[in-house]
Amino acid sequence: MARTILWTSSNRPLATAHYLGDYEAIVVDLEWGSLIGANGLVSGQDGEATDEFVRETTNTLDRRAKELEPFLSSGGVLVVKVQPPSVLWSADYQGRTGEVDTTRWLVSNVYPLQYAVVLGEPPFVAGSGRRITLREFGHPLEAVIRNANGYTGRIAKLVFDLDDPVLLAVTRIGDPVAAEIPVGDGLVFLILSGVSDKQLEVALNEILAARERYRQNWLLPEEAALIGEQKAVQVQAREKVASLAKRSQELADVKASVMKRVDMQRAIGYYENGTSATRPIKQAMVDLYKLVELLEGYFGGSEDKLASRLDVPKTLFKHIKKLANQRQLDFRHATSGETEGADVKEVEQARDDARALVQRFVEQCCAEAEAQLVIASDAGS
């Protein structure tokens, strides 16, 4: 069955499309080419235009905004490729006489976006990149988002203060870049600008077909049960992802505090110097030896205490000390007698051992820091 989907572009912009209620779904990019067919206007940048052009654009987008409300309330699907807002303005010698932006027509019909605006934050903000993390697994748009080649705009975090929006994907540091927002019986998908239209078309057809099936009357009991079960699984998955994200943030905060410690910075510094590809082997082995000395001192000044506190075999660090102290090698005692070149495998093993030591040092310090937070929390409650 052929679907009536409006794919806007500079050649077929939203401004010249049929009445929006004529479509089952609309795909629009938040830039002037997709909205009014105006090329040469860069997304996220403002530009000056004539009074007449600004007025005509305002009237066109206001008309589309009025059509969007019944489109969504009757079950339409709107897919928006997120871009930072762009403003067209006109002015005379006294200042600006009018302006219109790429987002107002949409924001007026999607309450979570309005919510951000009311609180003084634009619903979409600048920021481009390629690395994303999925937050909603099993979603119909999962493959589309996963295979996107990047994003050129982000979604304001305030949007997600409300319950309705479903967060689909974030940047590497957690900024929202994709979401699903129910509006009436319709859906608004805010997605990355770098998605494949070919993949999006396939997913959108499947979404429309599924929504049509769900809207049908006379559902069989098993069909209704499956729909309910699917929704329950989605809720559980969101709660689990939220729980994992919370725990991940807690660990990140603890690790960040540990990484600020002087001893930790020195240990990592010794390790990085000792494994640097550009550092002479002689100096690198001295650095790894200093790493072991630092850890021994931190845990009480003995090999036994170091091995016990980090729960590692003594061989892990004794090999480093032995190799660094061999007089016939060109390391710590190279000035005494004849020397010979270092065995590459021995050096690589020492570096691997050093990495294992630093890893255990990080783990132990984080565990101790977390235990201290628990004690402080219990004492305060």
Textual characterization of the structure:
The chain is an alpha/beta fold and about 375 residues long. It has 2 domains: about 5-215, 3-Layer(aba) Sandwich (Rossmann fold), CATH 3.40.50; about 260-380, no CATH class. Helices cover about 50% and strands about 15% of the residues. The chain has helices spanning about 30-35, 50-75, 105, 110-120, 140-145, 195-215, 220-260, 260-275, 280-300, 305-310, 315-325, 345-380, and strands at about 5, 25-30, 45-50, 75-80, 85-90, 95-100, 125-130, 130-135, 150-155, 165-170, 175-185, 185-190. Strands 1-2-4-12-11-10-8 form a 7-stranded mixed beta sheet. It has a 3-stranded mixed beta sheet with strand order 3-5-6, with helices on one face. Helix 8 (about 260-275) packs antiparallel against helix 9 and helix 9 crosses helix 11 (about 315-325). It starts with a strand and ends with a helix. Mean pLDDT is about 85; it is low at about 330-340.
Whole-number count of domains:
2
Portion in beta strands:
15-25%
Give me the side-by-side strand order of the main sheet.
1-2-4-12-11-10-8
CATH class of the largest domain equals Alpha Beta
Core attributes:
seven-stranded mixed sheet, alpha/beta
Secondary-structure blueprint:
Blueprint (H helix, E strand, L loop, with lengths): L4 E3 L17 E5 L2 H5 L10 E2 L2 H23 L3 E5 L5 E6 L2 E7 L2 H4 L3 H8 L5 E6 L2 E3 L7 H5 L4 E5 L10 E6 L4 E8 L2 E6 L5 H19 L5 H39 L2 H13 L6 H18 L4 H8 L4 H11 L18 H37 L1
Helix pairs in contact: 7-12, 8-9, 8-12, 9-11, 9-12, 11-12
